[in-house]
Every structure is written in structure tokens, then in C-alpha cells.
Amino acid sequence: MTGLARRSIEDLAQDMRLNAAAFIVTIYGDVVVPRGGVLWTGTLIDLCGRVGINESLVRTAVSRLVAASQLTGERIGRRSYYRLRSSALAAFSEAADLLYGPDRPASGWQILHAPDLRPEDARRQRMGHMGGQVFIRPDRGQPLPPGALVFHAEPLTPDAALAGFWDLRALRDGYAGFMALFDGIDPAALTGAEALAARLLLVHAYRFVLLRDPRLPAGHLPADWNGPQARALFRRLYLGLTPAAQAHVAASCEGADGFLPAETEATARRRAGLLHAA
């Protein structure tokens, strides 16, 4: 059974066509940040190798992340270690809140006139485009873009037509693809190393779709919206994989002070957030 599970994880990684730098970001976000933020390069190479990313690609990706001011390195003896730069932590924190925390209902809508906002930045902030320089998003107290004027609207009468301001078809297809990839994973069939690799792949694939999702109120979504089913699958598998994955972290993942702990206050909060919302 273990051999079959191992091959399925290798096939899963191959089907996902992983980008090395993006996968390293996932490793730091899921494993390293809640355990002090520092990881030995040898551990990073091993984790990436388990999903088919070779050492040369890892070293090239790390160099690019350093150049992009996302990672910074230090040497202790003959070993190299990397940590997140403080400038990257805010983005990691936002992603962690979406991945592991309970959903925060919107209080209404923000309708923004943002003459200096580029379309790609609006999409990254999950805004719908109403025309010209006017954008809309659920109001969850987000900070405003520089130079933007905002109009706050109370919750509107449920109307699926609002979904037209976003490309929800692409998001729905993304969630469907995520579920097709992971629906057959059985956490009980995996070793600790396999469970950690599977959990990293799970987070990586789900993060890619979730960070583009505006999380519209249910009454404004099409009838065939599959976001809740994808969320339920993510929670079930993440919680099921975590015991074996965290035991493997403690046995094999090294930071500057030795092996990383299986659990910290931060990882416990993440698990509690998923349990609360399940």
C-alpha cells in the first residue's frame, strides 16, 4: 500500500507541473514560518526532491527568491540557512489567514474609485472591475489602495448577476481541478514523509486558487459554485495528514537550532482554525 501511495504522490506532483520558487514559498508558509522561520538548505533540497524538484532547480530558485527580497541567507559553520525577509511576512500572514483561519463574513461592499490602481493589482487584491477605474469587493475592512476613494454599501439583495464582475468560471474550473487531483488521497495509507509531501502539495494547489477567490457572499454566487466543496476537501485532508506530517517535520526538518518542533503555538492555532470551521 505504501508503494502505491508513493507512486500516486509522485504522479500528483508531476501532474501539477510545479514551479520550484513557488513551491519553496509554500514550504516556508506551511512548515517554516510557524516554527521560527529558518530552514537548512539540505532540508529544503530534500523536501523539494520528494516532489521531483532537483537540487539544481532548488538552488536556482533560492537565488531568485533572495534577489526578489523574499529570502535572506546566513551561514553557520559549513551550512547555509534561509529565512523570510520581514518584507515578505505580511503576504505570508494574509495567505495563512485565508488558508487556515475561519472565513470572515463581509459586512457589505467596498466600491472604489482608484485612478492609480493597475488592473493586475486589482486582480491580485481580488477586486471585481465595474468599468473604468471603478472596482468592487466584499467589505472585510481591507486597507485601501493609495489614492482611492471608497463608498461603503450595505449588504445587497442576493443577486448572482454581481458575479459577472469577476471571472468565476476560471475559479470554478480551478477548484474542480484541485478536487480532481486530491480526492483520492488517503492519509492513513501514507508514511510520515509521504504525508508531509502530500500536505505541501495540497496547500500549494489550494493556495493557487484560493488567493484569486473574492469569497463573495453565497447569495451572489452561481448555483453550481464549488468553492465550499473544495474548502471541505482541503480541511479534511489537511487535518488528516497533519499528525504524520508533523511527526516527520520533527524527525527530519532542521533549522538553525536543530530539528524543528512538531507543533508550536502557531501550528496549533492553524489546526484549531480548521477544526472550528469544519
Could you outline the blueprint of secondary structure elements for this entry?
Elements lengths: L1 H15 L3 H13 L5 E3 H9 L5 H13 L3 E6 L2 E6 L1 H15 L8 E5 L5 H6 L3 E4 L2 E5 L10 E5 L14 H15 L9 H19 L16 H26 L1 E2 L2 E2 L5 H13 L1
Antiparallel strand pairs: 1-3, 2-3, 4-6, 4-7, 5-6, 8-9
Description:
This protein has ten helices and nine strands. The chain has helices spanning 2-16, 20-32, 41-49, 55-67, 86-100, 119-124, 168-182, 192-210, 227-252, 265-277, and strands spanning 38-40, 71-76, 79-84, 109-113, 128-131, 134-138, 149-153, 254-255, 258-259. A four-stranded antiparallel β-sheet has the order 5-6-4-7. Strands 1-3-2 form a three-stranded antiparallel β-sheet. A hairpin with a 2-residue loop joins strand 5 and strand 6.
List keywords for this structure.
278 residues, alpha+beta, Arc Repressor Mutant, subunit A, 2 domains, four-stranded antiparallel sheet, three-stranded antiparallel sheet, globular
- What percent of residues are in strands? 5-15%
Average pLDDT figure: 90
Main sheet summary: 4 strands, antiparallel
CATH superfamily of the largest domain: Winged helix-like DNA-binding domain superfamily/Winged helix DNA-binding domain
Q: Quaternary state, please?
A: single chain
Strand and helix order: HHEHHEEHEHEEEHHHEEH
**CATH architecture title of the largest domain:** Orthogonal Bundle
- Counted up, domains total 2
Would you count the extended β strands for me? 9
Envelope shape: globular
